[in-house]
Amino acid sequence: MNEPLLLVGCVIFISILLNNLLAKVPVPSLLIFIGLGMLFGENGILRIPFNDYEAVNVVCSVCLIFIMFYGGFGTNIKVARPVLLPSALLSTFGVVATAGATALFAHLGLSLPWLESFLIGAVISSTDAASVFNILRSQKLALKYHTDSLLEVESGSNDPMSYMLTAVAVALLSAQTLNVPLLLIRQIGIGVICGIAMGYLAVKLLHQQLLPSQQDHTIFLLAIMVLAYAIPAYCEGNGYLSVYLCGIWIGNAKLAQKKYLSHFFDVLTHVAQVQIFFLLGLLVTPIELPEVILPAIILMLLLTLVVRPAVCTIILLPFKPKLQQLAMISWAGLRGASSIVFAISAVLSNVSITYNLYNLIFCMVIMSISIQGTLLPWVAKQLAMIDATADINHTFNDYQEDSDISFIKIHLDPTHSWCQKTLEQLRLPSELLVSMIIRKDNIVMPTGQTMLEAGDLLVLAARSFDDREHLVLREIVVGHKKAYANMTLAQIPQTQTSRIILIKRGIDTIIPSGTTMIKPGDILVMTKFSLERSKKA
């Protein structure tokens, strides 16, 4: 146990140290970790003998759960809505067509049996979410015509179909009695029902006052993510489809402090990606790769230059895409870790095939990431597909602007002193700007002559306060027997240097007034300002 933990710790440590450097390297960073794994491997410098397919299959399958969940959690449905239908078609029928066409070329070009050809096509048929997300984000590639959203949704949702096709191919090669339509219906049906049900249940429970702290919310969602995969998988459904849909449902719900959840899963997913690519590099034996390099090159060229463009053209043609958009989508069909993980599961099934499936798929993935991934920014530029006015992060739910500007809202009730006054009459400080007014579901862009009315919701912008040396926030959890329980804020003594500024109740955030009632289970957020330090400063 000590040696694996030492290895895992070293890899994570190295990945953190290399973050800044990898951002400047023109090749996809995940490719570096495959190379690092090969460097550690038995033909590398450290010569670590490692061929435990079962252990790698378990670890990588768990890591794929994290990646699939966060892929759904980070998908902004509102932004992606214009491309949901074409994305769904590419991630279902597109995967089937890709598998079939690749199988055809493998059978005709390499003289492989039909079932072996179908297995190769099924394993390599999906585009890789980790690779696509990594390149789009690291290279800040915001693409025109919602193409970035289309690629993200497609790559995030097509692994379940590839997984099902791989299971069918393995069953057929193993001469198992199999009802393919029933298998697909069961896999998809159970996966969809469980994914939506778990997502709905998670959001409902988060809106109840059951979890007192943000840490509990994070651990709760981690448990939901695991159950969203395990329950349908136990019932012979598609766990990857379920966990992806669960992530979409939760990610697009209104949750307090979502950015903290996003930061946690972002880090978790990054570590999962690094571990997958490192282990896959460690598992491969480089001296065995020459045996499969030629068929891998042939299949990869056909897949990249013939199969992917043909499938994309046929499926997207009814949506009348721009020619350069179609070319961009065709080139961006990167293959990645999920294909290698599915290849491992096929290897563990002990089916007899001509080529070493793991080595074959590994070579195809390496070529895809290194060539397609590296050239993706250049191709986008040549096709004039880069949208310089957009931000790729807007397509993700966890988007937070890197700015020292904060936004606050003020609701004007009929007794508010600002009613029936113009903004000019308020004489607000120049550092405080009324950026938007929401009036009866309409948005009013304010000027100095704008008259404020009862019922208006004002959105104000101001610079954030960041004097953490003098201002400290602390939390007090109100229990049933606490002195603050069932008291109004006015009844609670507050000193000159501390006051209650916020109440967390479940996932709701309350800005309190003197009449606000404190309830058991509330979390009181208090400021404490150090006058001594302030005077010294």
Distinctive features:
537 residues, alpha+beta, four-stranded antiparallel beta sheet, 8 strands, 56% helix, disordered C terminus
Brief synopsis:
The protein is of the alpha+beta class and 537 residues long. The protein has helices at 2-17, 19-24, 29-40, 53-73, 77-80, 84-91, 93-110, 114-123, 129-138, 147-157, 159-173, 180-206, 214-234, 239-251, 258-283, 290-316, 323-331, 337-348, 357-382, 423-426, 531-536, and strands at residues 405-411, 433-439, 442-444, 457-463, 471-477, 498-505, 508-510, 523-529. The longest helix is centred in the middle third of the chain and has 27 residues, at 180-206.
If you had to describe this structure to a student in words, what would you say it looks like?
This protein is an alpha+beta fold. It has helices spanning 2-17, 19-24, 29-40, 53-73, 77-80, 84-91, 93-110, 114-123, 129-138, 147-157, 159-173, 180-206, 214-234, 239-251, 258-283, 290-316, 323-331, 337-348, 357-382, 423-426, 531-536; strands spanning 405-411, 433-439, 442-444, 457-463, 471-477, 498-505, 508-510, 523-529. 56% of the residues lie in helices and 9% in strands. It has a 4-stranded antiparallel beta sheet with strand order 1-4-2-3, with no helix packed on it. It is elongated and about 85 Å long.
Principal-axes shape call: elongated
Distance between the termini: 52 Å
**Overall pLDDT level:** 81
Largest β-sheet summary: 4 strands, antiparallel
Query: What strand line-up does the widest sheet have?
Result: 1-4-2-3
- The proportion of strand residues reads 5-15%
Please state the structural category: alpha+beta
Element pattern in H and E: HHHHHHHHHHHHHHHHHHHEHEEEEEEEH
Total strands: the figure is 8
Low-confidence stretches: 398-403, 531-537
Question: Could you tell me the radius of gyration in angstroms?
Answer: 27 Å
Helix content bin: 55-70%
Instruction: Output the number of helix runs.
Output: 21
